[in-house]
């Protein structure tokens, strides 16, 4: 029977991990399970810049791979190829948990739950760094501007322009703060006066899943007779976009190792 893999989390990390698993392990079924989907994840708030540096308190680095280098190479290759916008043909099962997932339905679980990992997995090393941005309609802007302080920026995307940002460690507050919005808007208008004409201004708040380093490892959960291999991939902090493909590749490799163990359940017999 095909290995049944559940990926928990539908942010950038869960989705890219699901894609990478289905590409590297062709014979498996992948189900994405999440309580929120786009446009309601932290990943939807981000501007999506590739940031080569790290932030204080975050290594932004996964010990098992050169995640940023792999991600940058991958994205540059997509940018150079003609598939830039047509690379979304994978088919996944998608489900929304009602009462948690049934362990018997899956052979392997991959946890990509971002800041939700603090509660779900009980990992107290993960903490939020709150970020507030504005998403505005200003289609005449086609270049980015970044203030040297790194906090004020204007990043045009395909659909709208992201104006940022704040970094508030240990704040769980998902409500927009109108004073911060005004501050961001004023600073960005100082950088680019034409933003005064921006329309459809929306405020978005996200909690960066910060951790000293990304957690990228296997764990075997034991419950009675049943063993469930789990692969963790969370804690990308301020650099989820910058690292996503590298960490997805490493997570997929770990899933492959788990599958090998499933198919060889009695390693002791070899002794
Ligand atoms: C303002 C701001 C700007 C940013 N800018 C950049 C940038 O320019 N470049 C960059 O590289 N990074 C940036 N980041 C960081 C980036 O957004 C994050 O690193 C990335 O989004 C993390 O992705 P994720 O998939 O781990 O988390 P999320 O996007 O939060 O996804 C987690 C998923 O898990 C689900 N989930 C959580 N708990 C449970 C549960 N118990 N059960 C079921 N499902 C659950 C959620 O519903 C969600 O679908 C920015 C972040 C912010 C806030
Ligand atoms: C996003 O959240 C809003 C507000 O809670 C909700 O109405 C909407 O259905 C959600 N979208 C998705 C795709 O879950
Ligand atoms: C992409 O193209 C640029 C120049 O257009 C080139 O310098 C670079 O090496 C290419 N990268 C990849 C991964 O093909
Ligand atoms: C992305 O593609 C464009 C168009 O082919 C090219 O001009 C640009 O150099 C590429 N960027 C990178 C970083 O490779
Ligand atoms: C990973 O997610 C599953 C499904 O929600 C959960 O049962 C499990 O406890 C999580 N893993 C760990 C190590 O806690
Ligand atoms: C910004 O773009 C996203 C899609 O990427 C869209 O869902 C959202 O409504 C847009 N917001 C504004 C203010 O235009
Ligand atoms: C916003 O600023 C005003 C004036 O400085 C202050 O009175 C108010 O409490 C602030 N609001 C928030 C939500 O911080």
UniProtKB/TrEMBL annotation:
Enzyme class, UniProt record, top EC level: oxidoreductase
Catalytic activity annotation: D-glutamate + O2 + H2O = 2-oxoglutarate + H2O2 + NH4(+); D-aspartate + O2 + H2O = oxaloacetate + H2O2 + NH4(+)
Superkingdom of origin: Eukaryota
Record's signal peptide: 1-18
EC number: 1.4.3.1
GO MF annotation terms: D-aspartate oxidase activity; FAD binding
InterPro entries: D-amino_acid_oxidase_CS (IPR006181), DAO (IPR023209), FAD-dep_OxRdtase (IPR006076)
Transmembrane segments: none
Keywords: FAD, Flavoprotein, Oxidoreductase, Peroxisome, Signal
GO terms for cellular component: peroxisomal matrix
UniProt keyword annotation of Signal present: yes
A biological process from GO: L-aspartate catabolic process
Cofactor entry: FAD
Gene3D superfamilies reported for this sequence: D-Amino Acid Oxidase, subunit A, domain 2 (3.30.9.10), NAD(P)-binding Rossmann-like Domain (3.40.50.720)
UniProt keyword annotation of Signal present: yes
Subcellular localization, as worded in the UniProt entry: Peroxisome matrix
All copies of domain FAD dependent oxidoreductase, residue ranges: 4-58, 100-254
Stated role: Selectively catalyzes the oxidative deamination of acidic amino acids. Suppresses the level of D-aspartate in the brain, an amino acid that can act as an agonist for glutamate receptors. Protects the organism from the toxicity of D-amino acids. May also function in the intestine.
Family per similarity comment: Belongs to the DAMOX/DASOX family.
Protein name stated in the entry: D-aspartate oxidase
Organism, scientific name: Crocodylus porosus
């Amino acid at each position: 029977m095909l290995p049944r893999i559940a990926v928990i989390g539908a942010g950038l990390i869960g989705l890219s991990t699901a894609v990478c698993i289905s590409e590297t392990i062709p014979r498996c079924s992948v189900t994405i399970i999440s309580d929120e989907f786009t446009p309601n994840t932290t990943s939807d708030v981000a501007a999506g810049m590739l940031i080569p540096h790290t932030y204080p308190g975050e290594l932004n680095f996964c010990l098992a791979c050169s995640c940023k280098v792999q991600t940058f190479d991958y994205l540059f290759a997509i940018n150079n190829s003609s598939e830039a916008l047509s690379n979304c043909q994978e088919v996944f099962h998608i489900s929304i948990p009602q009462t948690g997932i049934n362990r018997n339905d899956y052979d392997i679980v991959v946890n990509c739950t971002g800041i939700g990992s603090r509660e779900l997995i009980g990992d107290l090393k993960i903490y939020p760094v709150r970020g507030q941005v504005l998403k505005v309609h200003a289609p005449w802007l086609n270049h980015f501007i970044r203030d040297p302080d790194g906090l004020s920026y204007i990043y045009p995307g395909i659909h709208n322009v992201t104006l940022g940002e704040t970094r508030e460690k240990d704040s769980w507050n998902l409500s927009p703060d109108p004073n911060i919005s005004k501050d961001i808007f004023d600073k960005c208008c100082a950088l680019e006066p034409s933003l005064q004409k921006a329309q459809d201004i929306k405020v978005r708040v996200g909690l960066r899943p910060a951790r000293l380093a990304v957690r990228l490892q296997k764990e075997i959960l034991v419950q009675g007779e049943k063993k469930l291999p789990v692969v963790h991939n969370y804690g990308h902090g301020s650099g989820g976009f910058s690292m996503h493909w590298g960490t997805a590749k490493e997570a997929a490799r770990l899933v492959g190792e788990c599958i090998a163990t499933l198919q060889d359940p009695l390693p002791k017999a070899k002794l």
